[in-house]
Amino acid sequence: MRRFATALGALAAAGTLALALPGSAYAATGNLVINGVGHQNPSGCYSTGTLATLIVNQTDATVYVFSDLNCSGDVQQIIQPGISTLAFGSSVLVK
């Protein structure tokens, strides 16, 4: 009986964890355009491919432009939802 209770408890904990993890991922709703290339419901880091980048933030999320690749280095610019701008950086992070 004790093994059954332990197994049942472990199963309940695993089920709770499995249900909680999918909710922690976040994707913005809308379209992010980087130099003419659209990204529907973007999430994470995107390379700009160039130093001067036209960014159109048609999402519900804030976009951060970083000086270096892989969203590292200094934040060069913060782009609020609904803003289109010329940005200078190597990568873009959607938060």
From TrEMBL:
Residues 1-27 form the signal peptide. It comes from Streptomyces orinoci (Streptoverticillium orinoci). Keywords: Signal. This is Secreted protein.
